[in-house]
Amino acid sequence: MEPLKRNSIFNDTEKKLIRAEEWAEELEEKLTFTVEKFEEQNQRFMQCGKELAESQELLEKYENQADEQREETRVLKIQLAALKAENIGEKPGDSSSHKTGLMS
């Protein structure tokens, strides 16, 4: 029995199939590369999100500390003003300024 002869339609179809398979392999490689890059970017995004959250917490902590220090400073200024007023009201030679440690 003699092998079947290939006609031009069969040959063209076979060539198209080979090109389609090559194209599909190339597409699969590109897709794999794209997925890998997407996963890398997603990891970076997640890390940046984590760092941002940590930075926001730290900023809030520092803002709270600054608020507390401003309040302490305000109280100390009030106390200082009261002590100055007390010292100004002293009579010369009064030794009560030595008790506070302030000199007028």
Morphology? rod-shaped
Average pLDDT: 87
- The biggest beta sheet, please? none
Amount of beta strand: under 5%
Give the number of helices.
2
- How many angstroms separate the termini? 127 Å
Which percent bin holds the helix content? over 70%
* Unreliable runs: none
The radius of gyration over CA amounts to 42 Å
Number of strands: 0
What does this structure look like?
- It is a single chain.
- The chain is mainly alpha-helical and 104 residues long.
- The protein has one domain.
- Helices cover 83% and strands 0% of the residues.
- The chain has two helices and no strands.
- It is rod-shaped and about 125 Å long.
- The mean pLDDT is 87.
Concise description?
The chain has helices at residues 8-88, 96-100. It is mostly helical and 104 residues long.
SSE arrangement:
Layout: H1 8-88, H2 96-100
Features:
single chain; 104 residues; mainly alpha; 2 helices; rod-shaped
